[in-house]
């Protein structure tokens, strides 16, 4: 479980940082906002998917190996 003790907070931090960057890009506007806000939100969706996979894997490992 030591691996998941590191991975879960790390991936949650990644999701938070990408979300904050996407919001910043959206509110900044201009050329920067047009080019980065949509990309950042796509990165957030991918990061959330990875976070869900890691959480499910951690739950399965805990169930099987206690």
Q: What does this molecule look like?
A:
This protein has helices spanning 2-28, 30-65. Helices cover 95% and strands 0% of the residues. It is built from two helices and no strands.
| Largest sheet: number of strands, sense, barrel closure | none
Oligomer classification: single chain
User: Uncertain regions: pLDDT < 50 for 5+ in a row?
Assistant: none
Shape: elongated
Give the mean pLDDT: 91
Write the layout of secondary structure elements.
Layout: H1 2-28, H2 30-65
Helix pairs in contact: 1-2
Question: Could you give a quick summary of the protein structure above?
Answer:
With 66 residues, this protein is mostly helical.
Features:
66 residues, mainly alpha, elongated
